Amino acid sequence: MQTLNRKFVGALSLVAVAAMGLTACSTGSETAEPSASSSMAAPSSSAMASESPMADSDMDPAANLVGSGCAAYAEAVPSGDGSVAGMAKDPVAVAASNNPLLKTLTAAVSGKLNPKVDLVDTLNGDEFTVFAPVDDAFAAIPEKDLNAVVKDADALSGILTYHVVPGQIAPADLSGDYTTVAGQDLEVTGSGDDLKVNGASVICGGVQTANATVYLVDEVLMPPAKK
């Protein structure tokens, strides 16, 4: 997987979206079937124990940002709803939909890739830490493999919920092991501008939304095989 410590010019292209033929998708999302979002109904107590209280709403949204790509993100999206300040005003699924670096992820969680997988209401309805792959991360996946996952609602839901940890976790407290909403563990290592999630680099993290803390990452995280 390629890193995005350079400018986000490549990320602003919607290569992954075009490859999957999103132009044929409707702008609205259908109602999700229970199987697609049921795995998000029961947050893990072990993950919740690792939460950190976040600062109050008057705090500068950029105060706790980490990652060598934050400056490039700010340059690419300096203002508006998709900027760091703009994302802080909306719940996470809405905030992500406004970020031009997260178009593929937004399509995946909103039912536009597979109408059986619509996690918008769930993501907006509680507090989470979200590891959000940027568009280039999806574009790096072979098209055949990506299309196969998109067609399989259970597989797609499992991968998406593997990027979500219950509770908001601040950058200073992030290093450690967590049980995701999918029920499988991931590991965060490093600190400051050198955080990694299962080996994927955090491009810019500590991005606040109304109900979540977001970490933009340069790879799509794959859940470990179930035993």
TrEMBL record:
Ranges of residues in domain FAS1: 89-221
Compositionally biased intervals (Low complexity)? 29-56
> Organism's domain of life?
Bacteria
Signal found in the keyword field: yes
What residues form the membrane-spanning segments? none
Where is the region Disordered? 28-61
Which InterPro entries does the record match to this protein? Adhesion/Biosynth-related, FAS1_dom_sf, FAS1_domain
Protein name as it appears in the record:
Cell surface glycolipoprotein MPB83
In its UniProt entry, the species of origin is given as Glutamicibacter ardleyensis
